[in-house]
Amino acid sequence: MGMRRIGAVVGLMVIGAVIPALPAGAARSVGPNQFFTGVVNGVSGNTIVPITIRMACFGPVRPGQTGHPMAGQTLAVHELFPPSTSGGSLGATGNDKEIGVFFGTPPPATPGAVAPAGATIFTRYDSPKPLPTSLLLPCGGTGTVWFTPIPVIPPSRSQAVSVQFVGQP
Fold first, then answer.
1. Rounded distance, CA 122 to CA 106, Å?
2. N or C: which end of the chain has fewer CB within 10 A?
């Protein structure tokens, strides 16, 4: 009985060595009729966990003060299949093949609308990009990051991700 168990383990080891492994986190292309969630600093927008954006605002924050995000933060999109709505709403690509990230107001939902120059655009899932440090955002408080299918062709649907802007002490 012991020899059978050893033979089975050795057999599995040989199979594991022969079959090539798929690359970890292989990124899939954004395509039509997919559900997705935005990801800010590694935290999915489809969770109830607070998402923080660290701001390069030092000392006490004054009402209405703005500044730039600190370096080393990321944005990404993640495909959800099968779709799950635990904790939040999802985005849907509809007929679109790109997802843009917008702070504040997303582009209008009109066919053919394009993302402004310099916008962060995703064509692949699970491929993080740096959060641009050139953005001018609130030093404190809450806000919304919109992950919007581009070129905004209905029936696509944006996902609103709530964030907290936090100035540094």
1. 15
2. N
Rounded-to-integer distance, Cα 9 and Cα 3, Å = 10
Domain boundaries, position 159: 25-168
DSSP state at residue 59:
S
pLDDT digits (tens, 9 = 90+) for 89-132: 889 999 999 999 999 877 666 666 666 666 899 999 999 999 99
* Residue 15 resides in a domain: no
Average pLDDT over residues 70-86: 84
The answer as to whether 9 is a domain residue is no
Euclidean distance between CA atoms 112 and 152, whole angstroms: 7
77/99 Cα distance (integer angstroms): 8
pLDDT digits (tens, 9 = 90+) for 6-30: 443 333 333 333 323 334 456 799 9
- 63, 67, 73, 77 alpha-carbon torsion, rounded to 10°: 80
Strand partners, 137: 67
Give the chain's domain count.
1
Q: Is 68 inside a domain boundary?
A: yes
